């Protein structure tokens, strides 16, 4: 088949997030399908912007990445989640809309997938699918507009939210197939008009070849941070991923301040970037958190090496109602595949850590609960933590590898 994958934020290992579109597309190409990835060259989640012949992309540009045909459209630069991001979204969608006749004619897709975080790409994808007489698939990462309403406090009457709601309703009405990463969305989607016969759950996962063979060495500054913590006799807690408000990292820093005050031999090494990175780093310095080291993002290929060096992996969430529909975090899949014992600070419709028995779950946005959880896990023997990690690894290998997920996704599209 020819699969057209429309995802504003699609990335690749050399570029940074988002990774899911790349991993699914790579598996599909290995199965003999052709995939064209339509994405914006400017994104707040990528570590590196794609370039054409060493220059920024200023016009629609094709790039082959591991057999996937990426079609990049330029977009204005922006910071944060304000008006600049909205302008970036509309610039991207407007360009793809104008190019849709050419894309449909030249690529001739059999399947068109609308997969950007926001739902407004459904209108462009629907236009492309109708031109090509292709099947229309709507892939849900987060529930918009509920996510910006419940996470960011936006008014349901805000014009942007009204637009998102129109797009979500249109997607449920017009898509031939709806694929959700979140497992507990049935009641919500039905309330917005979705025929649940269209719905298929395909969660996030990992790709096995990134965890086999000779893995890239860990960047020296990160390796040194872990080494220094061990030299002080500390149990090393690791965090690898975005540093944004949804990750509730203030709670983690509050817990580390408690542990430092109590003299607990526990150290935290954080690698990543994001909107909150500078503010969190200022907290570490101002509050004198000697048991915390914050370092810039490392390439995804080095994540296994980092996780192999730590004792406990941490992931946390805000306490917000939106998580009643479930969670599907990429970094948790990495933690589990690495065989890490995990401290999970969450209240959600599902909990992979509890399902796999690979760690401890505590209440979200509670520094007391996180501190106590870290103390309890640090008190375990290395053998006990290793057994937790083995259970997590087995769980991921059984249910969350991309060869398995890619076939499930294709079965949903062709069923």
UniProtKB/TrEMBL annotation:
GO terms for molecular function: glycosyltransferase activity. Transmembrane segments: none annotated. The keyword Transferase applies. Residues 234-393 form the Glycosyl transferase family domain. Keywords: Transferase. Residues 16-205 form the Glycosyltransferase subfamily 4-like N-terminal domain. InterPro entries: Glyco_trans_1 (IPR001296), Glyco_trans_4-like_N (IPR028098). It comes from the Bacteria. This is Glycosyltransferase involved in cell wall biosynthesis. It comes from Sphaerotilus montanus.
């Amino acid at each position: 088949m020819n699969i057209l994958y429309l995802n504003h934020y699609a990335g690749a290992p050399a570029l940074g997030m988002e990774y899911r579109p790349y991993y699914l597309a790579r598996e599909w190409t290995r199965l003999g399908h052709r995939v064209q990835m339509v994405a914006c060259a400017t994104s707040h989640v990528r570590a590196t912007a794609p370039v054409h012949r060493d220059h920024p992309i200023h016009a629609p540009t094709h790039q082959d990445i591991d057999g996937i045909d990426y079609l990049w459209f330029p977009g204005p630069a922006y910071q944060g989640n304000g008006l600049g991001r909205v302008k970036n979204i509309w610039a991207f969608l407007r360009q793809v809309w104008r190019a849709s006749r050419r894309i449909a004619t030249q690529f001739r897709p059999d399947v068109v997938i609308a997969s950007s975080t926001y739902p407004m790409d459904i209108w462009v994808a629907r236009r492309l699918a109708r031109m090509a007489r292709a099947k229309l698939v709507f892939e849900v990462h987060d529930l918009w507009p509920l996510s910006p309403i419940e996470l960011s406090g936006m008014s349901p009457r805000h014009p942007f939210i009204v637009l998102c709601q129109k797009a979500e309703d249109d997607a449920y009405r017009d898509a031939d197939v709806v694929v959700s990463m979140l497992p507990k969305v049935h009641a919500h989607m039905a309330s917005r008009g979705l025929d649940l016969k269209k719905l298929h759950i395909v969660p996030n996962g990992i790709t096995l070849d990134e965890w086999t063979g000779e893995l890239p060495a860990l960047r020296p500054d990160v390796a040194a941070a872990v080494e220094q913590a061990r030299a002080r006799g500390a149990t090393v807690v690791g965090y690898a991923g975005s540093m944004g408000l949804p990750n509730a990292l203030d709670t983690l820093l509050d817990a580390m301040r408690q542990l430092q005050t109590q003299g607990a031999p526990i150290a935290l090494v954080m690698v990543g970037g994001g909107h909150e990175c500078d503010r969190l780093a200022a907290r570490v310095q101002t509050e004198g958190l000697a048991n915390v080291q914050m370092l810039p993002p490392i390439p995804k290929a080095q994540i296994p090496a980092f996780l192999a060096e730590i004792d406990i992996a941490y992931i946390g969430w805000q306490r917000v109602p939106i998580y009643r529909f479930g969670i599907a975090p990429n970094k948790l899949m990495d933690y589990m595949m690495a065989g890490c014992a995990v401290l999970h600070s969450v209240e959600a419709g599902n909990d992979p850590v509890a399902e796999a028995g690979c760690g401890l779950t505590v209440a979200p946005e509670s520094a007391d609960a996180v501190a106590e959880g870290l103390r309890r896990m640090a008190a375990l023997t290395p053998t006990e933590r290793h057994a937790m990690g083995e259970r997590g690894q087995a769980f991921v290998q059984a249910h969350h590898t991309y060869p398995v997920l890619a076939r499930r996704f294709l079965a949903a599209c062709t069923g």
